[in-house]
Amino acid sequence: MRPPESILVVSPDATTLQGLTRALVQHGWPVLSAFGWPEAESRLQRIPVSLMVTDMEELSRDEFSTVRRLRSEFPRVGIIALVSFSTSQSRAAESEGLVLSVLEKPIALDHLEESVRVALARAPSP
Fold first, then answer.
1. I need a surface site. Which of 70, 73, 114, 124 has the fewest CB within 10 A?
2. pLDDT digits (tens, 9 = 90+) for 54-64
3. DSSP secondary structure string, 30-44?
């Protein structure tokens, strides 16, 4: 039997982190949260995660590099990026397969939940 899928929600904003975590928990998914990239990386090293939902203003060059490095270190972890501004970097990350999807904020929760369902259905077994 496949273990329950776990989701890591990452945000530099405590209110957003709490809201996203609560919304996903209400749908029965096991959810962990991380306040920023350093905490997210620490959790990824210690806890099996199937999917990361990341909140950011835009997928800047630095964040693009971080996502690329995390995908290299944790290839089995899918990433959904929530951005305030869609940029050429975010479109490139999606087309290169670094992220499963890029969703522009504000995001309807049903759209996020559907994206999470689709991502978890595609996730490889550990």
1. 124
2. 998 777 778 88
3. -EEEEESHHHHHHHH
